[in-house]
Amino acid sequence: MLSIQDKVQQLRSLVRLLSDASEEVIQSWLIDDALSNSFEDDTKSGSIPSHRLFEARRTLLGAAGMIIDIVQDPQARLMELAAQFYEARALHIAVQAGIPDILAEDNEEDGGEKGVSLEALALAGRTGINAQKLGSVLRCLCTAHVFSEVSPDTFANTPTSKCLVNNEPLQAWISHTMGVLSYETSRKLPEVVLDPTRTHSQAPLETAFQLAFDTPLSIWPPLYADYPWAELGDATIVDVGGGVGGMSLDLARMYPRLRFLIQDQPDVVTEARLVWQKEYSEALNAGRVQLMVHDFFTEQPFPGAEVYILRYILHDQNDKNCLKILRALRPALLIQPETSRILICDQILHTTFGSTTFPALNAPAPLPANYGDASRFAHMWDLSIMGTFTGKERTVDELSVLAKKAGLRVEKVWVCRGLVWITELRLGEEVDEELEEDLEEAQRDVESDTEVEEGSEE
To answer: Measured at the alpha carbon of residue 423, what is the angle toward residues 419 and 424, in degrees to the nearest 5?
Structure first.
């Protein structure tokens, strides 16, 4: 436990850090204003902040989170954390009821900042929700700064809720992916994690998702990531397990010299062809984009490409399956070992202790190494992945271990200005897979014998 003097010193240090980071954000806003860019442009979904603003934001969030932790009563802090799912549920309700859009429709000139009365929102033709209950939901979200109560029983959009106006993808992600799939999955997560049998299961069909929905089906959401693609010139990018090729579609439009090969299961490839014919038939018909049936657990049939993308693939899988996927890709890098690379597009799970392999990723003291509050979503999503699949979001150190076992190495971690980062793998020293498996089996035997001995002593 920190002494009073330690707490005083830490709080003062955090306040200075908070002040410096805040000033950096303010300067960024002033520069944008001078360039005639509105403040709201920076708050729109998908906008990319400057590197300085990105760094200042996460420093500010990390410092603010630590200040809250220091000054708040510990019991009150824990009670608040335990009840935060009510805020999430309130957001799910507001989005499903279309509150942001209704507020914007009634005040088109300002996006809903003047406000709409609770009585008007509760009308059968608007939401049909009981006014008293709707008021409780909205006031909960006002406290979290999602909406604003501009006068008694009159609610308005804020810059945060404006991101939801006419934003069907984000609305669907909040109300369905989070509000239904992930929420119901999280409800069963304690049952799986605390169960003596289920807690050790690595079977992909024995997760909290299957338990919640009584189904053998699995799901995974899309992503988009940042990388210096222009430097690749006319390189070929192989989108391994790329679905219909959503990421490749964006890149193909942005960088007309790049070529793409999208690989997935037969039915997905069939659907991908329809998508590309509709969205960007020129690229498909010109041969810039090709589609191929491929199982990523088997050896890569297109060796020598400059880039192989694994976008939201590894985090769905346990370590054993990740090794299979990476080992199946390694031979493809042997043709052009100096230029071929694998890009893993997943969230990097950065811990508060930090990375020993890549210390440059760690936040400056006295912040937690992962910037604290700025990394909360990554850890929440890790629990979602654990509940839905048997995979996990991994730290860069864990990815480095997997890469080494697969005969690869982590070349660089690209810190993208968003939730998803890119881990670049290059060819490493070849690993004797049979010897590796023998060593792992021997280690499991030792652990098993130890458990038996401990059980006998009891």
So the answer is: 145
The Cα 243–Cα 250 span in angstroms is 14
**Single pTM value for the model:** 0.57
Q: Is the dihedral of CA 12, 15, 21, 26 positive or negative?
A: negative
Question: Strand order of the sheet with strand 147-151?
Answer: 116-117, 154-157, 147-151
State which residues of the chain have pLDDT below 70. Answer: 36-47, 108-113, 180-181, 192, 197-227, 379-381, 383-390, 432-458
pLDDT tens sequence across 161-188:
998 998 887 887 788 777 766 777 777 7
Within 8 A by CB and 6+ apart from 317, the residues are 325, 389, 390, 391
The C-alpha atoms of residue 413 and residue 406 are separated, in whole angstroms, by 18
CA 102 to chain centre: 29
* Distance between start and end Cα atoms, the chain: 34
DSSP 186: H
Which residues, in sequence order, are CB contacts of 389 under 8 Å at separation 6+? 204, 207, 209, 218, 220, 315, 316, 317
Contact 310, 344 (CB under 8 A): yes
Tens-digit pLDDT profile for residues 412-426: 988 777 777 789 999
Burial readout 417-427 (b: 16 or more C-beta within 10 A, e: otherwise): bbebbbbbbbb
In this structure, are residues 57 and 49 in contact, taking their beta carbons and an 8 Å threshold? Answer: yes
pLDDT tens per residue across span 111-151: 556 788 888 898 877 888 988 889 888 988 998 889 998 88
Match 């005083």 to its residue by tokens: 8
Active site residues per annotation:
315
Give the Cα separation of 46 and 371 in Å (integer). 21
Q: Which residues of 93-122 are buried (b: 16+ CB within 10 A; e: fewer)?
A: bbbebbbbbbbbebbeeebbbebbebebbb
CB of 261 closer than 8 Å to CB of 239: yes
